Amino acid sequence: MSWDRPTEATEAPVCPRHPDRVSYVRCQRCQRPACPDCQRPAAVGIQCVDCVREAERAMPRERTPGGGRAARSGTPVVTIAIMVICGLVYLGELTTDQVYREGALAAFIATSEPWRLLTSAFLHAPNQIFHIMFNMLALWIVGPQLEMWLGRARFLGLYLVSALAGSVTYLLFQPVDSTQGVVGASGAVFGLFGAIVVVQRHLGRDASSMLGVIGINAVIGFVIPNIAWQAHLGGLVAGAALAALLSRPRQRDNPTVAWAGIAAVAVLSLALFALKFVVLA
Question: Which pLDDT does position 69 carry in this prediction?
Fold first, then answer.
C-alpha cells in the first residue's frame, strides 16, 4: 500500500518594493515579482521600475551639437533662471539701495571684495528700467539658441566667464582708486553675441545680422555717456574665444578638455586683474 506525501505550502511571490502585494508577474530582466505599480512595458513582457532606471543610467546620454549633455526637455532653464535672478535682484535694488552698494563693482574695492566681479553682472541701474529691459531682451533672443547648442552647463560657464572678463576689462581701463561703480549684464550678453557669431559661422550660417547688432551697440557705447564699453569689449572677446574653442572637435567631444579651456579663460582674466591691482598697484 502506498500514498503520496502532502505537498508543502508554497509562499506566494510578493513585490520587493511593495511586500504587502502578491504578484505572479515577473520582470523579464531580473525575474523578480513586480506589482502593477512597478511594471513598465518592455519589448517583450514587462520590466520592473528598478531595472528600467538601471538601464537608463547605463545608456550614454545624448550630446548637443556643441558637445554638452543634452537636456531631457527643450526648455532653456539656465537662460530663464538668469533672467529671474536679475529680475529679483532689480526688485531688491528698488526696495533698498544697499543691494546696489553691496554688489556693484568699483576699482577701489575690487581687490578686497573680488566677488563683485560677478555680482555686478546681476545688478542693473535702479533708476534706468531700460537698462535691464534691453539686457534681458537680448539674453532671451540669443540665450536659448546657445543653451541648446552648448548644453546647459557649458552655456552657464560661457555666460559667467564672459561676465568675469567684461568686469576685468572694465577695471583695466580704470585708475586703481576709482570710485566709479558699474553694474549690468552687458558684458555677459556681449559674450553671448560673440559666441553666437562664432557658432553661426561654424554651422555655415549667415552671421551678418548679429554682426550688425554688435556694431550698433558698439557705436551706442561710445555715443551715450555712462556706458561701460570696456565691459562690452571684454565680454565679446571672451565669448567669441570660448565658442571658437568649444567648436573644435577635440574640445567639443572631451568634457575634461572643454572645461579646462573654460577655466583657462577665467584664469587668464583673473591673472590680468591681479597683474594690475596686486602686482603693479
Answer: 67
Exactly one of 186, 202, 247, 269 is catalytic; name it.
186
> 116 with 109: CB under 8 angstroms?
yes
Q: What is the pLDDT of residues 42-63, one digit of tens each?
A: 877 888 888 888 876 766 556 6
Say whether 120 is catalytic. Answer: no
Instruction: Using alpha carbons, select from 278, 276, 174, 158 the residue that is nearest to residue 231.
Output: 174
- How many CA atoms lie within 13 Å of 119's alpha carbon, on the beta-carbon side? 16
pLDDT tens digits for range 180-194: 989 999 999 999 999
C-beta of residue 49 within 8 angstroms of C-beta of residue 131: no
Write out the CATH class of domain 77-279. Answer: mainly alpha
Q: Which of 169, 142, 140 is nearest to 228 (CA)?
A: 169
What sign results for the dihedral spanned by CA atoms 237, 238, 239, 245?
A: positive
Mark residue 242 as left, alpha or beta (left: phi above 0; alpha: psi -120 to 50; beta: remaining).
alpha
Q: What are phi and psi of 202, to 5 degrees?
A: -65, -35
Q: Hey, where are the domains in the chain?
A: 13-59, 77-279
**Residue 223, amino acid:** V
pLDDT tens track for 118-128: 999 999 999 88
- 186 as an active site residue: the answer is yes
Give the CA count within 13 Å in the CB-facing half-sphere of 95.
7
Residue 22, H or E segment: none
Please say if the pLDDT value at position 22 is more than 70. Answer: yes
**Is the predicted pLDDT of residue 94 greater than 50, yes or no?**
yes
Catalytic residue among 162, 167, 232, 269: 232
Alpha-carbon gap, residue 277 to 281, rounded angstroms: 5
Select the more confidently predicted residue: 69 or 173: 173
